[in-house]
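Subject: sequence -> structure tokens, single chain

Hey, anyone have a minute? Need the predicted structure for the following. Not urgent.
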Amino acid sequence: MPDNIVIKGFRVMGSHGVTPEERERDQEFLVDVECELDLSAAGRADRIEHTVDYAELMEDIRQVVSRESYNLLEALADRLAQTILRRPFVDRVVIGISKSMLTSPKLDSVGIRIERGTVQTGLQDEELSPR
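Reply:
Had a minute. Here:
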């Protein structure tokens, strides 16, 4: 069974969405991240150098969500996955992102969940760049 570092319900402001209204004003995004990695060395040594620092991981998430802008939550989640998978020790990541739907009284939120390890899409980087 793999070990995991889990961040749940991290609230970050950003401007992502398909409509101009969504992209023109900041809205709150709820981010959940689960990093799969081997935590045995950190457990034995009790040293931060053998694991992922939660504070640094949260800063990575905050930077991407608050400073970049994407049409789709799927693109935002994929960008977060790429960023997190560059960190030492992380083998796999599961990311959930949701946002409230203030325009619909029948719905609290919408969201997505992705899981990534080594990203191999077959597409060239220029085909994947945000619009």
